Automatic annotation (TrEMBL):
Superkingdom of origin: Bacteria
Name this protein carries in UniProt: Sugar ABC transporter substrate-binding protein
UniProt lineage: Bacteria, Bacillati, Actinomycetota, Actinomycetes, Pseudonocardiales
């Protein structure tokens, strides 16, 4: 096994200087490697420690194959994966967001993996919505391995200090609690307004879905009222001062750091954040996302394994994907929730801190919008939310702009 990326940075520097190409591309090309005996896997850096263990086991069971791992990061992977697929020189296996998969399918960039599903990987064993996100009328183009959505994470000590007994359960409580919590160096919440566009848009979409928007066949159906309600919370909160102005400068990771450092009292985040907060000694709580009159909705999303249509070793890629898709391996590689039902029964997925996220996922979520036109529209929604946060436009005007763009790209809402 060869591990490329951050773990081999010093090895790659000289080659990158000589060749004058980007490090990620340099790392993905093994000098003199035999494509029939090597499988190149692009894997997110947060999965790398466990992925390394799994690859060692895979190679022991498949001595005719060697796996070359290339680390990707959340802030650059979407562009790098798109460029690699368009270039005709992609890796053999890619770990990628399910919600971006249909964009690649539409371009003909992925291999149909329908043949992998059967007795060993039964379709009935996947969480509802997971396979829909990576399937169209011609086939299934990925194997999902992780499925989750955000929910509310809050600092119990800061809530107690503000005289608040528990987490908000409605939007009215959310705003009232936020105003109480915003004092001195502490602001109620923050939003990831400087990271990947889909991270911020996903927060907006959750509130819009709670206010009446819907997802039909992968297409979000928005309306003025739902968009305005979402913008009033996600963008208006910054303009009004109960969400941190730092939102304009932080991504998901940095929002979590603001929370750990006691600068914000609550935020919408993934269950994978909670362990880091517990390790930091925080008195942390989790709860369902507030909605207008009770639990709100969230768009679930997940990660899956793709095999590019132009993979150099498609047979080896399928063998690696089959291995990674085993329930035990799937459970090891995710600290959120495995996409296969049979992999999700372990106690670590259902303790007191993770159970609200599981309830959000199981009872108060919908499959993600994944139409390529919506993916293309994400940057527009992202910039509109930022404009509301900066006070350059109002939630009502922002909603009208989003609706006009939605009608243009997605078709009028029926």
């Amino acid at each position: 096994m060869r591990i490329r990326g951050r773990t081999a940075a010093f090895i790659g520097v000289t080659a990158a200087m000589v060749l004058g190409v980007a490090a990620t591309i340099a790392y993905s090309v093994g000098t003199g490697r035999d494509p029939s005996r090597t499988v190149t896997w692009w894997v997110p850096n947060w999965d790398e420690p466990v992925a390394t263990e799994l690859v060692q086991e895979f190679e022991a069971q498949n001595p005719d194959l060697s796996v070359e791992m290339v680390e990707t990061t959340s802030d650059t992977m979407a562009n790098k994966i798109s460029v690699a697929l368009d270039s005709g020189d992609p890796p053999d296996v890619i770990t990628e967001l399910a919600s971006r998969t249909r964009t690649y399918i539409a371009k003909g960039s992925l291999a149909d993996l329908s043949d992998l599903y059967g007795p060993d990987i039964p379709r009935s064993d996947f969480i509802p919505g997971a396979l829909d996100a990576v399937t169209n009328d011609t086939g299934t183009y990925a194997v999902p391995y992780r499925w989750d959505c955000v929910a509310l994470i809050y600092n119990k000590d800061l809530f107690a200090a503000a005289g608040i007994a528990g987490p908000p359960t409605t939007w009215a409580e959310l705003v009232a609690d936020a105003r109480k919590l915003t004092s001195g160096d502490v602001t109620a919440t923050a939003w990831p307004m400087s990271g990947a566009a889909e991270d911020l848009v996903r927060r907006y979409l959750g509130f819009a879905l709670s206010a009446g928007a819907r997802v039909e066949n992968g297409v979000p159906r928005l309306d003025l009222a739902s968009s305005q309600a979402a913008l009033e919370i996600v963008g208006g909160s910054v303009a009004e001062g109960w969400a941190s102005r730092s939102s304009l400068e932080v991504d998901n990771t940095e929002v979590r750091e603001l929370f750990i450092n006691g600068r914000i009292a609550m935020y919408l985040g993934g269950v994978f954040d909670v362990q880091q907060q517990l390790d930091a000694g925080m008195n942390v709580g989790t709860a369902l996302t507030p909605g207008p009159d009770g639990p709100g909705l969230q768009a679930a999303d997940g990660w899956g394994y793709l095999v590019p249509a132009e993979a150099k070793n498609p047979a080896g890629a399928r063998r690696l994907v089959e291995f990674l898709a085993r329930p035990a391996n799937m459970a090891r590689l995710t600290i959120t929730y495995p996409a296969r039902i049979s992999a999700g029964g372990a106690p670590q997925f259902h303790d007191q801190y993770r159970q609200p996220h599981y309830e959000q996922l199981a009872e108060h979520s919908v499959p993600p919008p994944n139409d390529p036109a919506w993916v293309a529209m994400n940057p527009f929604v992202y910039s509109t939310i930022q404009a509301v946060a900066l006070g350059r436009t109002t939630p009502a005007a922002g909603a009208r702009a989003i609706q006009a763009e939605s009608d243009r790209l997605l078709g009028p809402t029926g």
